[in-house]
Amino acid sequence: MLLTPTAPVMVFRFGNGELTASCDYATGSVIADVTELRKLTAMTTTALASALPVALSLDTLEGLA
Predict the structure, then answer these.
(1) Which of 18, 27, 21, 20 is CA-nearest to residue 9?
(2) Hey, which of 15, 21, 38, 64 would disulfide with 32, CB 3.0 to 4.6 Å?
(3) What is the pTM of this model?
(4) φ, ψ of residue 18 in degrees (nearest 5)
(5) Nearest-5° Cα angle at 25, 23 to 40
């Protein structure tokens, strides 16, 4: 059972170097609390580092059809 719906996490760096993160849910966007920012940034970095290169990702997805 999925109790909490998944949502995309977006991390932004402003021109002054400040970071913020937000999650989009069906009921609206939520800006992450400062105490959660380090964890969300680390998780996002890990996910991006684990991602396949774009061309390989497209080939893999097309192969699933």
Answers:
(1) 21
(2) 21
(3) 0.60
(4) -70, 140
(5) 20
Q: Where are the domains of the chain?
A: 9-64
**What are the CA-CA distances from residue 64 to residues 13, 41, 56 (Å)?**
35, 30, 13
From CA 9, how far away is CA 22, in angstroms rounded?
A: 6
8: helix, strand or coil: coil
Answer whether 48's CB lies under 8 Å from 36's CB. Answer: no
User: Which H helix or E strand runs over 56?
Assistant: helix 54-64
Could you list the pLDDT tens digit for every one of the 65 residues in the chain? 555 667 788 899 999 999 999 988 878 888 888 888 888 889 888 988 888 888 998 898 899 97
- Sign, CA torsion 61/6/36/15: positive
